[in-house]
Amino acid sequence: MSYTSLRGPGVLEIFRTAEYAIAVNRGWKGILLASGSVCLLAQFGLRAWVHHVVVHVTPLHIPLQDTGSFNLFAWQMVNLIAFACVIYWARKLLTRLFLIEPFIMLGKASLQVFCAHLAFVFVGLGFLYVTVSQLHGFCAVGLVASTFGGLIFVALRKIRRERREQTTNNPELACGGSGR
Q: At what angle are helices 29-42 and 46-57 packed, to 10 degrees?
């Protein structure tokens, strides 16, 4: 297993909420100043220093050269700030875009959808280890399409089952009456 595959979302995801709170209360000036400072320090060895501290404090003894092109402090912070600004300014558009029935349905059945997602992940990994070295072209499009189709199917099934249970448990809903 490669050490670079263990990265996940990273430390920067933790600070997103704090950045929003600071920006709402005090403006973007402090966040941009902090981001610029981190980028400047990154040019003078901040990455190596943080790596040295992490290696000595934790049991993660990963050589610096094995982290590949991942540089924790250089452009990722700037990209995160830019992404946060775009999301903040486009929040009304994004709200309208994501408040459509398929996304709401996926959210209501999130546990079942997550479990189905894991099954599709294992199918994708099976393709990678057995059939091909990389998924691209029709294989990739087919996997993504079947994944989304399967996730929507699982969500629909869950929502329909809940409605059926509510109708069974509440006979007034089955008759369409108001109970008066």
A: 90
